[in-house]
UniProtKB/TrEMBL annotation:
Residues 132-229 form the Acyl-CoA oxidase/dehydrogenase middle domain. Its EC number is 1.3.99.3. It comes from the Archaea. This is Acyl-CoA dehydrogenase. Pfam families: Acyl-CoA_dh_1, Acyl-CoA_dh_M, Acyl-CoA_dh_N. GO terms for molecular function: acyl-CoA dehydrogenase activity; flavin adenine dinucleotide binding. It comes from Acidilobus saccharovorans (strain DSM 16705 / JCM 18335 / VKM B-2471 / 345-15). Its cofactor is FAD. Keywords: FAD, Flavoprotein, Oxidoreductase. It is an enzyme of class 1 (oxidoreductase). InterPro entries: Acyl-CoA_DH_CS, Acyl-CoA_Oxase/DH_mid-dom, Acyl-CoA_Oxase/DH_mid-dom_sf, AcylCo_DH-like_C, AcylCo_DH/oxidase_C, AcylCoA_DH/ox_N, AcylCoA_DH/ox_N_sf, AcylCoA_DH/oxidase_NM_dom_sf. The lineage of its organism: Archaea, Thermoproteota, Thermoprotei, Acidilobales, Acidilobaceae. Residues 241-390 form the Acyl-CoA dehydrogenase/oxidase C-terminal domain. Belongs to the acyl-CoA dehydrogenase family.
Amino acid sequence: MVFPFKSVEDFKIGLTEEHELFRKSVREFVEREVMPRWREIEESNRIQPEIFKAMAEQGLTGVGIPEEYGGQGGGQLMTAIAMEEIARAVPSLAVAIGVNHLFAVPVLEFGTEELKKKYVTPIARGERRGAHANTEPSGGSDVAGIQSRAVKENDHYIINGRKVFISAAGEADYLLVSARTSPPQEGKRWWGITTFVVERDWPGVKIGQQFRVIGMRGEQPYEVVLDNVKVPAENVVGKENEGFKVVVTTYDHTRIGIAAQAVGIAQAAFEKAVNYALQRELFGQRIVNFEMIVEKLADMYIRLEASRLLTYWAASLADQGRPEYTIAASLAKTFASESAEWIARQAVQIHGGYGVDFETGLERYLRDAIITTIYEGTNEVQRLTIVKEMLRQAFGLRI
């Protein structure tokens, strides 16, 4: 036993030649079509439609979605590789793809066959966009604290509520919405939440203010207001009153993608730091010869590769259907996002004044890295999840 896992074999990472070929194809596409437009995206705070269209034509909107629903298949490991390569160029574009998964994953895991065909297929093909509307002013990581209400009337529900910090809501055609259909039961605070597929153009769905957050320009989040929105009963995802499971299971899957985003950010910042250290001269020599720069680069590289290994490991466990993947996902998300922030900060320091100059294209990675430590469950919540899952899996204890 390798506490809290059962064997050293649990640490296998299932990479194949196919994964490397896929990585190369994604990198070639991203460097050709996306990397040259980072400045345009940052300045306009908008991902141009032709970029997303090109992503769809490349099949990147369908990675990780089964072929029978219009996707490319590939599982979590393939998805993580795609997210890493996209985030290396423009992290907000990786968010746009990741948000599609936030919509598609719960429908694929818990939805009816009709919902999968109707809503996931156009998402996978890049014909439609999805978003995940869970976070509310009262909190996001505390899923059981959802206060939006859904009242059943005959063959439909009426939803009222306000959601905040909803990524891609401004462009989304479909929303995965959580709302309380019953009060919580004694000892079961999570009970009574239900999840729904809501179409953006239905009466009562309003996209409110856009939040000007520190990073992820091009895909910054919105407010979503639900004002007496009429939703057909067949658009319930999962079982009524058991939507808490739908939401948290979704995050268990998709936070691996956040870890991959962080790895991509860290990779880009590290590459810039190495290139600059090789070119910049100070006191008659390249700064890569200075001991303090060497130490920074070594520590950056250590954290980068450790982050990548944790992320690929979590993805491999998920692809195997192993229940242990949930703790691995939290480990990867926490370590990779904090490492990305640290690595980007060191890269800025190595660049000196140029590091905080917009034109260098480096400071954006620091801003974006900070976001990865917050969404899909803050890292404080991840640490709580890690310990709870460790005790549950090793000893069967629930705290």
